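Journal club prep, shared notes

We agreed each person brings one worked example of a sequence with its structure written out as tokens. Mine is diguanylate cyclase. I'm keeping it raw so we can talk through how to read the token line rather than staring at a rendered picture. Sequence first:
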Amino acid sequence: MRILVVEDSQVVSRVMRHLLTQELNCEVDVAPDMHSAKALLAENQYFVAITDLNLPDAQEGEIVKFVLAKQIPCIVLTGSWDAEQRARLLQLGIVDYVFKENRFSYEYTAKLVKRLCRNQSVKVLVADDSVVSRKFIRSLLEQHLFQVIEADDGVSALETLSENPDIKLLITDYNMPRLDGFGLIIKVREQLSREELAIIGLSSDSDESLSARFIKNGANDFLQKPFVHEEFHCRVLTTLDALDMVTRLWEQANLDYLTNVFNRRYFFNMYEEKLNTIAQKKGSLALALLDIDYFKKVNDTYGHDVGDEVLIEFSSRLQQSFSQHFTVARIGGEEFVVGFKGLNVEKAYVLLDSFRMQLEATPIATSKGLLNITVSTGVTEFTLDENVDALLNRADIGLYEAKANGRNLVCIAQD
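Then the structure, token by token:
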């Protein structure tokens, strides 16, 4: 990713270069004037341009129009606050207008660029029966590089959410036919928590209680129409930052720090709940315990860094083979567990033995060269009135049998 900073102050350009490379590890080009900026823009593709308004050879903000004409998102830095100028620039479609006041201003700009980078993969649903209002909100969101989907009422919004489970933000108007904003939020919150989907309510009504009612019904925030560009962007970004923070906290609590698969805690909590449902519905569940063969020898011979590389690649292959339909977790050291909900032990055995053969046939690339790795596996099947510990203990018996019979085997542990 490449970023252009157009700034005649060497101090400011050095600060911006440092903060941007620190935040994004990207390439940063600096132009001290408009002539230099044009030359760089002719030779390179830029993700975003951060431009000063007052340049030695362009003192009326000409650089902004030039950058926007190239379809490059533009963040404006300025040393003077001018309300008319600010309104004019926002109408042009810039990303933001930042007053060069202190170091926080530059930190804000760097974090904004990082947010723009993340926004490219964020889907936002806008629900509003007014075409004009939808298109206006869409244009604001697209300035910040979001993927935008539209719905003309609450019923259409529910259908769109069902078809696009990766939507992260819903922006909904209050007054809509068929299903209004309140009804939409209530139905959405029956399926999705605040941690899974953020919601911002909108309304042009003068009722002072609307904001509280929206939030009490499950919205994360509320905006009164009409709103200014900057308030809209700040509310959206703050809401998504909070969603990201909750996601990071969830990942820290539930994902293994090294391999990024689920950890022991998550697996036990998840399957203690699943076992009750499976028992009630008389469903099937096979559970497998996998142990990398002679892993201690890998650590002793090549070092723990190479051991970590093996664990990371092994878990990646497990995920590629099983995580789309089943649950993969690391429960400690070189031991992993896979829960095969909906499969009996015979079907799970076939999948596990195929994985075992693929692993044996494909060495793992490490910093010390290719290593031939094999795995021993014990697999068992859930029976009524037992918990996760009992299942794991039985799978461990199968694992012990696989090791006792020469390793690189899958063994079924019976009741």
